[in-house]
């Protein structure tokens, strides 16, 4: 069962024990468009203590730069180097983990965030598709590009059949073509609704190619390996803070680091403390409580 | 092991034993755009013997009327009543099996064939989607239509994120909304390529909604129930003729009827006669051989 942190003394021990704090954002820092009380001050306090903070998000549709602007909108000065989106992680994975050849390029099924981060990492990419590729006969004109050495799939709100078909063809025709997904969340919340997420778009290519992708985002350890490729990380002095057991806490467990579940998002205290749930190391009401140390 | 039919006497016994012959098309009647030798004469012979022939296809993108034109192009006079496409079967399933209420309507993710067959069956449908529904915020404007009582998903080459999202919303918001797939083939052949099929598009909604659809097309028995709803079928006097073990032969097995595998398409004689393969009742080189009886 997670250790429930209740007193200022508990909070102080937590802050003393770790050098690097990895944060999920929605449900921990903000709820949709509203910042959670005390969190801004808590993060400022950590920084004043020379703690490293890294914001880890599965959202691949916007770049770190755009994400930084979202923080600025809450009056928080967070640099892009403090943000680890699944789009950036995917670029790091290609560049630093699998050492993707500069002779090769990537075909992108995904949003602007993926394209922006590939561009920043000097990885060549294409997402050529034409609406003319609608009739079966059009595919007879398909000319394979042997330079395409990876297909990246993330949430793509401009998805169409031609784009999916071309990704499918590269994945099945090009020997050794890598298959990488930014994340595999089946849905994501928009207002009162849930809509199909990256994992649902990804399932088209998983089903058609019968291939298993490398998944970068939480809860997969790939993301932690990417963070470790960018920063020196001492696992025993690093903690993951999140509001979801199956993504944030599981990510910490998969990465071999401690975890803190907060009750400002999806997971209730009742659920977090249930011995049958995924077990976080610590639990607390809100990360905003840390501001009491300031 | 299937009984291998080799002689004219074998063929005559086959024809005598059955009243209704269900046929797969590609690989049995034609190969892409070329008719298989002797098949036209074989079908004509069956008809001259007052046998009923029904052409059964998982292709939902064109209507039976359009399919009839394809036969005409090969000089074969096949009426739409002799064709059972998965699009028509889906309409029959809604109308005659589940008795879909005339007060309700269907949201269609699928091609023109599905819309044409729903129209012929007097089933109301919509496939409203707007390219404006691209930004997350647009979904806050989504107004649920409680009249939508079913989502049909088939191969849709005009797929887009808004259409998938709206289908997802009806399936998750409307109590008792039926989830029906025309078929679940993961790919289909186009020239030298395979492209993502209905089953791959379907997987988006299966993943996002975590719902299990009713699948109409081969190899599922749903299709046989639909055929039985349209025609009087005596199972012991009905046979399924196909070139694929996992769709055509399995469809016959699931429906409790005899099967004939031919070697003019996907399956080789070696594979069909392998005791570890799905077991057809009979096997023969080509259905064109039946023309020797004429």
Automatic annotation (TrEMBL), chains A, B:
The domain of life is: Eukaryota
On cofactor binding, the record's note says: Divalent metal ions. Mg(2+) is the most effective.
Which positions bind Mg(2+)?
24, 26, 243
The alphabetized UniProt keywords are: Hydrolase, Magnesium, Metal-binding
Query: What catalytic activity is recorded?
Result: 4-nitrophenyl phosphate + H2O = 4-nitrophenol + phosphate + H(+)
One Pfam family in the UniProt entry: Hydrolase_6
Q: Which residues bind substrate?
A: 218
Q: Which GO terms describe its cellular component?
A: cytoplasm
Active site at 24, 26
**Cofactor requirements of the protein:** Mg(2+)
* Gene3D superfamilies found in the cross-reference section: HAD superfamily/HAD-like
Q: Which GO terms describe its molecular function?
A: alkaline phosphatase activity; metal ion binding; phosphoglycolate phosphatase activity
Report the EC code(s) recorded for this entry. Answer: 3.1.3.41
Q: Which NCBIfam families match?
A: HAD-SF-IIA, PGP_euk
Protein name, per record: 4-nitrophenylphosphatase
Q: Which organism is it from?
A: Smittium simulii
């Amino acid at each position: 069962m997670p250790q429930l942190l209740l007193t200022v003394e508990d909070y102080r021990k937590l802050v003393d024990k770790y050098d690097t704090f990895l944060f999920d954002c929605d449900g921990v820092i903000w709820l949709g468009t509203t910042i959670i009380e005390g969190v801004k001050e808590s993060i400022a306090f950590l920084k004043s203590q020379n703690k490293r903070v890294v914001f880890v998000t599965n959202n691949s549709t916007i770049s770190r730069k755009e994400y930084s602007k979202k923080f600025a909108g809450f009056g928080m000065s967070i640099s892009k180097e403090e943000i680890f989106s699944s789009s950036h992680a995917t670029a790091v994975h290609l560049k630093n983990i699998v050492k993707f050849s500069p002779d090769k390029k990537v075909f992108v099924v995904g949003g602007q965030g993926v394209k922006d981060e590939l561009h920043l990492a000097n990885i060549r990419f294409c997402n050529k598709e034409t609406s003319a590729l609608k009739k079966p006969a059009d595919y007879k004109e398909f000319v394979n590009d042997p330079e395409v050495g990876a297909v990246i799939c993330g949430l793509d709100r401009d998805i169409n059949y031609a784009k999916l078909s071309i990704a499918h063809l590269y994945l099945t025709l090009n020997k050794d073509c890598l298959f990488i997904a930014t994340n595999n969340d089946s849905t994501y919340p928009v207002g009162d609704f849930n809509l199909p997420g990256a994992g649902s778009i990804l399932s088209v290519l998983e089903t058609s190619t019968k291939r298993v992708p490398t998944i970068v985002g939480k809860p997969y350890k790939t993301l932690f390996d990417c963070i470790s490729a960018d920063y020196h990380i001492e696992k025993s002095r690093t903690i993951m803070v999140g509001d979801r057991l199956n993504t944030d806490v599981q990510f910490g467990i998969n990465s071999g680091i401690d975890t803190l579940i907060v009750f400002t998002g999806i997971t209730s205290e009742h659920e977090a403390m249930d011995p049958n749930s995924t077990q976080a190391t610590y639990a607390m009401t809100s990360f905003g409580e840390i501001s009491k140390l300031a």
